Amino acid sequence: MSGLRINISKLSEGVHSRSLEIEPADLGLDERFTEAVKVLATLEKSTKQLYLTVELSTGGTFMCDRCLDECRRDVRSKYSMVYMFGSESTLKPENQEIAFIHPDTSFIEIDEDVRQYAVLAVPQKILCREDCKGLCPQCGINRNSAICSHGEKDEIDPRWQGLQKFLKN
Ligand SMILES: [Zn+2]
Ligand SMILES: [Zn+2]
Q1: What is the distance in A from the centroid of ligand 1 to the CA of 126?
Q2: How far apart are the CA of 44 and the centre of ligand 1, in A?
Q3: How many helices and strands (H and E) does the chain possess?
Q4: How far is the CA of 31 from the centre of ligand 1 (A)?
Q5: Is 125 a residue whose pLDDT tops 70?
Q6: Potential cystine with 58: which of 8, 37, 70, 98 (Cβ 3.0-4.6 Å)?
Q7: How far is the CA of 132 from the centre of ligand 2 (A)?
């Protein structure tokens, strides 16, 4: 079965690390993610808990905010999670970084956490390049690859459009 599962049965106390890899589609990531999701998991086990740190990296093709062209971006993130051995009722449940597992648990599944952190790590603002010229607001042409008659300098501030119409008449 596919998925990101970490075998924690017979895990001795101390620090362990695991490398995992999964295809983005198998993790439920949308089609913007095109590269395998690599996960480096560090597990620190003690008698009471398992402290998990996950470093994840993948990549995808995203849309430039200005010209709507596709551009490739790395997606990286890191998160930590504490798996307490015991039942939930004894501790405050509002902390999302704490999960409760039975001491005999053999596997922890991290698919959903990794998926969420990958989605959150997608940059808020994406530009295909620093100086992307974007689309012409009048004809919609991509100014990075083509030139139209409207010219960058003549970009009309919408506040002036009314006045311009007035002057032409
Ligand atoms: Zn662009
Ligand atoms: Zn134009």
Answers
A1: 8
A2: 43
A3: 2, 7
A4: 20
A5: yes
A6: 37
A7: 15
What is the rounded CA–CA span in Å between residue 123 and residue 64?
Answer: 11
Length of the chain (residues): 169
pLDDT band at 1 (very low <50, low <70, confident <90, very high): very low
Q: How far is the CA of 62 from the centre of ligand 2 (A)?
A: 24
Strands 98-101 and 70-85: parallel
Q: How far, in Å, from the CA of 70 to the mean position of ligand 2?
A: 20
Residue 75 C-alpha to ligand 1 middle, in angstroms?
18
Which ligand has the shortest distance to the CA of 141?
2
153 CA distance to ligand 2 centroid (A)? Answer: 11
Q: What is the mean pLDDT of residues 112-123?
A: 95
Average pLDDT, the chain: 88
- Specify the pLDDT at position 93: 55
Which ligand has its closest atom nearest to the C-alpha of 70? 1
pTM assigned to the model: 0.78
Report how far residue 117's alpha carbon sits from residue 102's, in angstroms, rounded to the nearest whole number: 25
Any residues with CB less than 8 A from the CB of 144 and at least 6 apart, and which?
Answer: 67, 69, 128, 129, 132, 133
Residue 115 has pLDDT above 50, yes or no: yes
pLDDT confidence of residue 141 = 95
